[in-house]
Write a structure and sequence with these properties.
Elements (H helix, E strand, L loop, with lengths): L4 H7 L11 H11 L24 H19 L5 H24 L5 H14 L4
């Protein structure tokens, strides 16, 4: 992520209520809301060692991901209807329980995990 210093001075740094997940989405949303251009360059590349920070404590990682998901939904009231937000919270809670169960059962390398991750990505990649 490349950000102009003037934008950071105006909008602020990452919101500390988000631990390790969704802080980039929050910052981009605040930039956009304050008139800054937010762009995605699909041809840009970088190295991201997925799971490098969370592999030592996978349960904490699962919990923190879902806590931050709840916080981003609450912070921006993503949908106009209370029932829809409740549905999203229920789905995220169900996903968290399944991920914890899968982790406890040691099934991270199986087909079940691939399905859960795919389903979770559909839910969690909501555009603002």
């Amino acid at each position: 992520m490349l950000v102009r210093r003037k934008a950071i001075d105006e909008v602020g740094l990452f919101d500390e209520q988000f631990f390790m997940y969704w802080e980039d989405v929050d910052l981009c949303k605040r930039m956009w809301d304050n008139g800054w251009k937010v762009a995605y360059f699909p041809k840009a590349s970088g190295v991201h060692h997925i799971g490098a920070s969370s592999k030592h404590r996978p349960l904490r990682s699962i919990i923190e991901f879902h806590k931050s998901s709840y916080k981003i939904i609450r912070k921006y009231k993503i949908t106009p209807f209370y029932i829809t937000n409740s549905f999203i919270i229920i789905c995220l809670s169900l996903r968290a329980c399944i991920m914890i169960l899968v982790n406890k059962m040691g099934m991270f390398s199986g087909k079940l995990l691939s399905f859960i991750k795919s389903y979770g990505n559909i839910i969690s990649h909501h555009k603002f």
